[in-house]
Amino acid sequence: MADVREQLVSKSVNTLRMLAVDTIEKANSGHPGLPLGAAPMMYVLWQRHLRHAPAEPSWPDRDRFVLSAGHGSALLYAMLHLTGYDVTLDDLRAFRQWGSRTPGHPERGETPGVEATTGPLGQGVANGVGMAIAERALAARFNRPGFELVDHRTYVLAGDGDLMEGVAYEAISLAGHLKLGKLTLLYDSNDITLDGPLSLSFTGENVAKRFEACGWQVLRVEKGDTDVDAIDEAIAAAKKETGRPTMIEVKTTIGYGSPHRQGTSAAHGSPLGVEETRLTKEALGVDPDDTFHIPSDVADHLGGAVERGEKAVRAWNDLWEKYRAAHPGLADEWDRAVKGELPGRWDEAIPAWEGGEKIATRAAGGDVLQAIAAAVPSLLGGDADLSGSTKTRIAEEDSFDGVTGAGRNLHFGVREHAMAGVCNGLAYHGGIRPYCATFFCFSDYMRPSVRLAAMASLPVIYVWTHDSIEVGEDGPTHEPVEHLMAMRAVPGLTVIRPADANETAEAWRAAMKSDGPTALVLSRQKLPVLDTKRFAPAEGLSRGAYQLADPPGGEVEAILIATGGEMPVAVAAWEKLIGEGIGVRLVSMPSWELFDSQDDAYRESVLPAAVRARVSVEAGIRQGWEKWIGLDGVAVGIDRFGASAPGPENREKFGFTVDHVAEAVRALIGAGTA
Amino acid sequence: MADVREQLVSKSVNTLRMLAVDTIEKANSGHPGLPLGAAPMMYVLWQRHLRHAPAEPSWPDRDRFVLSAGHGSALLYAMLHLTGYDVTLDDLRAFRQWGSRTPGHPERGETPGVEATTGPLGQGVANGVGMAIAERALAARFNRPGFELVDHRTYVLAGDGDLMEGVAYEAISLAGHLKLGKLTLLYDSNDITLDGPLSLSFTGENVAKRFEACGWQVLRVEKGDTDVDAIDEAIAAAKKETGRPTMIEVKTTIGYGSPHRQGTSAAHGSPLGVEETRLTKEALGVDPDDTFHIPSDVADHLGGAVERGEKAVRAWNDLWEKYRAAHPGLADEWDRAVKGELPGRWDEAIPAWEGGEKIATRAAGGDVLQAIAAAVPSLLGGDADLSGSTKTRIAEEDSFDGVTGAGRNLHFGVREHAMAGVCNGLAYHGGIRPYCATFFCFSDYMRPSVRLAAMASLPVIYVWTHDSIEVGEDGPTHEPVEHLMAMRAVPGLTVIRPADANETAEAWRAAMKSDGPTALVLSRQKLPVLDTKRFAPAEGLSRGAYQLADPPGGEVEAILIATGGEMPVAVAAWEKLIGEGIGVRLVSMPSWELFDSQDDAYRESVLPAAVRARVSVEAGIRQGWEKWIGLDGVAVGIDRFGASAPGPENREKFGFTVDHVAEAVRALIGAGTA
């Protein structure tokens, strides 16, 4: 009997291996090295430990699995097929083809069962940490005695390349700090990277010891190519250790089974080819004439996941119905959280400001955050060690505790990149509305994760403060100049730079309603609140750009466009110019993306095509503003890095003065200097 | 005697502390916490170990010191003043003011003695690793028996925040791998970050053990606030260990001496204020009525650095003169390397390609690199584990050996961010011409360091390949779409995207001649070489944009602008359109920055203001192209993320077809479809 069982295990592992290889061969593109080496750990994890429900891939209490080494996608797709997800053999045959649900690297939303978009190395590790945090936070919020509604684990499969990335180190350190006991990282340790043996670049380091230094339990499986029981025992030991995360170093052979490629970097990223595929199948005891072959006993064996999953979901649904009866209010909250819906009247307590007050938009943003946090319990976030400056601490809440899940202020530490990757994980998990904050300049550190948030359309909110040369004394290293334009370049990211406190409130409203990521770009310096007796109300922000004011006569000769902290100088210039009888329209343009999404008629109403005398005012690079001012307009901006000097002096020296702006308008329409 | 000596030491340390504090008070801005805590280690390092020459801050064989915790700038400026650099008391009084040489964070080039622009955390650690690599490389190249021309050490002072950053971890891991024995990192370990005690975010980790895991020697100084001898001994022990880098954890008290602030995060980033400054001076035994006070014995003591430095330089100059006599050829090479000059005829062997050949620009770039590497021995670089794909391995050279310094291929591992930070360090050091490579998509990981290269004007060359949706099967995670525009946004960075092999050669020429950083953005896919019998020669690249061809009649109705891999489709569309009798000019625009730097007349000659029918073709976001095509033109581009499909299919689906481009031109000039 033991033999039969063992044979089935080995047959299943080899089926998985060759299904992945055939998938790659069919596409003539892909990475066979990881699937051949990591199939045993995939098998053990998915068959013996992972609590999942292939027929209900969005079951909230499922275990999460992240393939951080996203180039091994064929292995994941093969497993999804074998365990009964809606991934067909035809889907596998369409691997890496236009419009298929089996893209080259896993993409959340494209394939049932894929939890995260991965491929850029290291990201999945941070995503997994975020998921494990989300589980704890939801458990603390919803579990009640007798109702363990939330109780699942997070598994990450990572390779050497993942673990060399700084973002992964940051996330590992944070996970250790938070003592995330339900997080397990399977390390596919094969001593090979793309360029050759790992010894070329990674000998100095003892990865296991580094994880221990970060507070993780570390286990090791010596024969990861064959010893499924050792993998099994290690995962069981990981589950037993509840006080800290576990890393299991599984020693494998890249390209295992391929006679000419195994153990070499040649196995990593190129299809084996027809001949080598045959030889590999022969070496693994698989019929070389079969492709996409799944023996029926293997199909039954792995396909058992469907029934196990259905049973688990049924049990959970029973618990859920009892929970709803016992805790109806919480149950409603749960529903909203899981669907990502906002509670009714969630924004009622958001403050409004009177014209004439002076308040930095970062401070206004902090006030808005308090109101939203009180009304939206799903909101969870934090800061990369600058919350005193970014004003993003939720005053009424404790620091997040990774053991109990209590507290809603996440202290990310000086780990901007992991912060963004973890927020992606929080959003992937569901039930949480994540935000995070740092200085706008350091958004550069977060950029690879921001890109993935945009690609996967994750509703993460970035609060980026200290948004211009008005940062002042800290100097050019801390003064964003190119960042607005560089972030506007990211497809799917909505960038909003409000001009005063009331626009900041509207910006937060827009961010909370968005399905995708939103960046709130806020000032360090105080800004006067625009007087709604004289200027259009801030609600116009929702359309991206709007007329703040038109000239008294109504006839528009020129358009003055400003964003954020440059609005005060634009307002003063506008007042001066209309005082001179020049017909200037003043436009606030807090968000290019929101304006782009309006219809042509609205855009034309704000920026009539016939009016080509247009001046933009923004303390960032000029390049890019031609989109709105064309070849005939003038952009008042900065084409160099900033300077270390008091903020107001910087403003003056860089030309953000009433005279300079007014003169730019006059020159365009051929009016003389007043 | 011992007492007198000890008193002088303590007086010197406190002078340093209070000079920094007074500097910050005068500016009413800055970070007193680190200077008060780290003054003892600064004192010991600079007074007893650092080989430097204040009167000759560019002496090539000086030890390098990098203040990675750049917010402690006041401490560095105070030390530069006290040791005789050209930093006056008036300079200190102008701290953080417009135009001063004492900006808020250290900036290379602004202040004699400042080796690196720091402030964004973690960067200085990577810079230091780069400097230590440069020292080894130059030693291997120039030292000869009896002539240790190159023999110096690199010291980095880093804080907790630095070491939490992923880029620092990556650099630390690389330094351990390379066994950089002459690198010492002083860790100002004070258990405090901006948001409060480090325990908020950093308890899980044993930093010392993590360094050990990365192959470093780790030493510890328990009483870093007072125990200068223990610091002294630790640095001496670091110098003795030649087989691996050393980290010295120096336990300090942030804001040491300030009665109400010391040991709290309040000391970190705000001036102490008048009253607390008085109290701090009193606590440290300094007269509270004195500001910017330097006791004469302290001035003499620390000012001794000038004479020691002059002596060291004289000795080195003697050695150098003998070296020149013994090794005249090498001496000439040395001169060129240190001045950053290229050898004569350095570019003669760069290949040229015949029209009609087909070659990917990454492959052409690889060929060009071989020719340049053979002629320019200062060239040193490498890749983030993708050299097989980026074609950036120098074929005739070995892998770089961190012990001997031999070999010119640096294997950075999957550490893109540290790669860029290390290249900055190589450039800061001098004598080395650095380049580095990865996929263009992953330039996002490098961005914070690229920004600093641009700010400090470092001649680093980035080779970014796989530059569009033609990456194909690997899919959107690996396909740059927004990156061209996002990199063009960085002031001071020259971005070049050549259209064929010959433009690639010209791009490398431009990069090698540049004083600042240059990005070479290269194709994965093969591109036909433009036939110079029909099209203008690639030398036009040096001006950023140029007419490839005009319509036969000469009259220009419309302008078609393309870059890089989209040139083939633009050429075909141009041919089609002129065949229809439409007067279309074809412009190659490989570099916006080079074109921007031309005079108005040249730019007008390429893009006459009168011709507003302009179509751009680039496989990246449309936004930004309005700079050249205005409000009336059409940009053929991509406003979403890419897709996983074969490259040619992507090209077609995303609209990069002859018909689509030709129709865009026709529609603009009101011509009917052919």
Identify the notable features of this structure and list them briefly:
five-stranded parallel β-sheet; 20 strands; homodimer; 3 domains; alpha/beta; Rossmann fold; 674 residues; six-stranded parallel β-sheet; 42% helix; 25 helices
Short précis:
Two copies of one chain form a homodimer. The first copy, chain A, is of the alpha/beta class and 674 residues long.
Q: Quote the average pLDDT of chain A.
A: 96
* Count of beta strands of chain A: 20
Structural class of chain A: alpha/beta
Enumerate the strands of the largest sheet of chain A in spatial order, edge to edge or round the barrel: 10-9-11-12-14-13
Per DSSP, the total helix count of chain A is 25
Q: What would you give as the CATH superfamily of the largest domain in chain A?
A: Thiamin diphosphate (ThDP)-binding fold, Pyr/PP domains
CATH level-two architecture of the largest domain in chain A: 3-Layer(aba) Sandwich
The span between the termini of chain A is 98 Å
Radius of gyration of chain A: 28 Å
Give me the oligomer status: homodimer
Work out the strand percent of chain A.
5-15%
Overall tally of domains of chain A: 3
* Unreliably modeled segments of chain A: none
CATH first level of the largest domain in chain A: which class? Answer: Alpha Beta
What's the main sheet of chain A like?
6 strands, parallel
- Label the overall shape of chain A: elongated
Largest interface, with Cβ-Cβ < 8 Å? A-B, 117 and 117 residues
CATH-derived topology of the largest domain in chain A = Rossmann fold
Percent helix range of chain A: 40-55%
